[in-house]
Amino acid sequence: MSEQTPVQIVKDAYAAFSRNDIESIINLMADDVSWYLPGPPKVVPFVGRRKGKTEVNRFFSTLTDVQDVERFEPQQFVAQGEKVVALGNYKWRVKATGRAYDSEFAHVFTVRGGKIVEFHEYYDTAAVINAFGTTAQSATV
Q1: Which of 13, 33, 40, 76 is the most buried (most CB within 10 A)?
Q2: Distance CA 134, CA 2 (A)
Q3: 8 A C-beta contact, residue 22 and residue 37
């Protein structure tokens, strides 16, 4: 069996996410995966840096505990070497506030040796902060 391309590995992770199959996503990652979403963790509980499969698994658990996905659409994939950038948009609803937020996103993956070794998300942090019940100006990053 031939090794999958980095783009296919990322697409497989998104397909697993759409099925709510977090175990399959985690299995696509290196043991020491680095995972990062910017933002103030005192306001948005799933942001910050994580290292390793256990911490990333907790990220997904927290993500789904505090909000519901209404739309999640990766639309374009751009790859160069071991880097894959996925461009898309999503809409989430925060359970505690009932507020929804929409954002375009850029997800930057590094895939090495057939495993995701790094992830960094770029998105509208102000929209997320506002949906969690505070304003971007009052949130401390």
Answers
A1: 13
A2: 49
A3: no
**Which residue, 37, 48, 42, is CA-closest to 138?**
42
What is the count of structural domains for the chain? 1
Q: Which residue has the tokens 């942090």?
A: 125
Question: At 4, is the secondary structure helix, strand, or coil?
Answer: coil
CATH of the domain at 102: 3.10.450.50
Residue 61: inside a domain: yes
- Asked if residue 1 is part of any domain, the answer here is no
CB atoms within 10 A of CB 44: 22
Among residues 43, 59, 31, which one has the least CA distance to residue 120? Answer: 59
Mean model confidence pLDDT for the chain: 93
Q: How would you class 97 by CB atoms within 10 Å of its CB: exposed for 0-12, middle for 13-18, buried for 19 or more?
A: middle
Q: What is the band of 2 on the pLDDT scale with cuts at 50, 70, 90?
A: low
Closest CA to 123 of 106, 101, 99: 106
User: Which pLDDT tens digit goes with each residue over 6-36?
Assistant: 999 999 999 999 999 999 999 999 999 999 9
